[in-house]
């Protein structure tokens, strides 16, 4: 996390035993930029883990159709 004048710059790296996920953003509001980085990491983890497993993907889609 860095701050340059009024702009926050956040760079996050998350890794498991197989993959490394990275996200970085810059904004004026600290919580907004932090939330954006976590959202990016969440999408990357979802894509790597759920897309590979068709059974999980199908069940998740069935569950989401209820809403």
Q: How do the strands and helices of this protein lay out in sequence?
A:
Elements: E1 2-4, E2 7-15, E3 20-27, H1 30-50, H2 54-65
Antiparallel strand pairs: 1-2, 2-3
Keywords:
67 residues, 30% strand, alpha+beta, 3-stranded antiparallel beta sheet, 49% helix, elongated
Tally of DSSP β-strands: 3
Radius of gyration: 16 Å
For the largest beta-sheet, the strand count, sense and barrel status come to: 3 strands, antiparallel
Secondary-structure element string:
EEEHH
The amount of helix comes to: 40-55%
pLDDT average, as an integer?
Answer: 82
Shape: elongated
What is the end-to-end distance?
37 Å
Proportion of β residues? 25-35%
Number of separate helices? 2
Main sheet strand line-up: 1-2-3
Kindly name the structural category. Answer: alpha+beta
Low-confidence stretches: none
Walk me through the structure:
By secondary structure, the chain is an alpha+beta fold. About 50% of the residues lie in helices and about 30% in strands. It has helices at about 30-50, 55-65, and strands at about 1-5, 5-15, 20-25. It has a 3-stranded antiparallel sheet with strand order 1-2-3, covered by helices on one side. It is elongated and about 50 Å long. The termini are far apart. The model has no long low-confidence stretch (mean pLDDT about 80).
């Amino acid at each position: 996390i860095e701050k340059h004048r009024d702009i926050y710059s956040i760079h996050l790296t998350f890794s498991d035993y197989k993959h490394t996920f990275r996200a970085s953003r810059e904004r004026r509001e600290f919580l907004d930029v932090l939330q954006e980085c976590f959202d990016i990491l969440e999408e990357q983890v979802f894509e790597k883990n759920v897309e590979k497993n068709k059974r999980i993907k199908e069940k998740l889609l069935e569950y989401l159709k209820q809403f």
